[in-house]
Amino acid sequence: MGKKMNNTLTLYELNSLVAELIDRAMPQSYWVQAEVSEARESRGHLFLELIEKQERTNTPIARASAKCWRSQWALIGANFERKTGVKVRAGLQLMVQVHAQFHPQYGFSWIVDDINPEFTMGDMARKRQEIINQLKAEGVFDLQKELNIPLFAKRIAVVSSASAAGYGDFCNQLKHNEYGFCFEVELFAATMQGEQVEQSIIEALNLINEREDDFDCVVIIRGGGATADLSGFDTLALAENVANFPLPIITGIGHERDESILDMVANTRVKTPTAAAAFLIEHLANTLYRIEQAQMKIHRAVERKLQEEKLHLQRLSTHIPVLFAMVHNRENARLDDYLHAIIQRIGLHLQRNRMHIATLSEKLQPNVERKITHERHRLQLLSQRIDSVNPERLLRLGYSLTYKNGHIVRNANELSKGDEIVTRMEMGSVKSIVK
Question: Which InterPro entries does UniProt cross-reference here (predicted)?
């Protein structure tokens, strides 16, 4: 037990022994293919987490940490980004040259000596082609090409970073166009670099889609050159959103390398934001030109038609006196015929009415005479009846009439003691007091 204790190593000694063994056993560098699961820069150094997944199940079967020191990364990173157009980030497939290093203080790590950009470019091209094939299989790859940018495209929805110089250039070029066209531009801010590009642009497109009727087309713009990270524009989800969008989409992403998948599925692709503005101005200028050409055609057609009608009128004017005389005579004869026919019709009508009146007169006279005789006899009978009840006649027969207060007394019960009554007879009247 004591002997074992005498052979005890310090941790530093143990780690140094491991480092020496690794240096002797693995002195050379190795080219390795792996996927980046995490990438970060710190103080100019690059720190990577590499992973390998099982092809069918996508289950990780190997992991390792790697780092590239600042002096080496400054050269490797610039070359990689210039050739691929992307930065080293999670999700990329890399072919890295590494050598093993075991540091007594920091432990084991793979040190990156080089990165092969051609391998990554090939993998990116393969993924791009897979996305393109899927879009074509879904039947949406050319949907945007079937949309027509409206002739009067002036209401523009812009997807861009608010602080991007490209957006400012786009707006300035539209505002100061040589034709004096007035464009209505509304910005839908989005992240145009990094890992948030896809989701940010999709969210902006969703907001525009909710107000589809407010815009004529959509412009997706950003600045940048060949070294800009454009991987966010090569995703299936973004391509599907753009391909199925109901409004025409114009892209001006601003890069020099081959077009992105977003450019491929868009309605129109231009290189830069200023080129997008120039395209919209030219599109409206073409519409103006078409209107002016149509206006000139209409003007010439109207002039030609007026000239033809003028000549036609001139030819007609030479025939008008003769035609007028013929028409005048014909119409006068027609009026004479109408007048003669009217006079004949009126004469016949008056004659028929006279005969009808005479017939009615002959029928009415006997009836009228009979009616008069009947009514005269009836009047005589009524006169006799009236005379039979005439008070004057009763008075002449010896009857008298008694009045109280001007009213005839018909019943003795109507009188009281002391009442004054008047008795009227044929010859005079008598006043009496009732006792």
Answer: Exonuc_VII_L (IPR003753), Exonuc_VII_lsu_C (IPR020579), OB-fold_nuc-bd_dom (IPR025824)
Phi, psi of 367 (to 5 degrees): -65, -40
Q: Which backbone phi and psi does 268 adopt, to 5 degrees?
A: -140, 140
CA distances from residue 356 to 6, 176, 291, 367 in whole angstroms, order as listed: 165, 96, 79, 17
Confidence of residue 115 (pLDDT cuts 50, 70, 90): very high
- The HSE-up count of residue 369 (CA atoms within 13 Å, CB side) is 5
**DSSP three-state, residue 212:** helix
Summarised one tens digit per residue, pLDDT across range 181-197 is 999 999 999 988 777 88
CB proximity list for 181: less than 8 A, separation 6 or greater: 154, 174, 281, 284, 285
Contacts of 216 (CB under 8 A, 6+ apart): 149, 150, 152, 153, 154, 155, 156, 247, 248
Decide if pLDDT at 230 tops 80: no
Closest residue by Cα to residue 219 from 237, 201, 194, 244 = 201
Which helix (DSSP H) or strand (DSSP E) does residue 202 occupy?
A: helix 197-210
**pLDDT range class, residue 256, cuts 50, 70, 90:** low
Residue type, 299: H
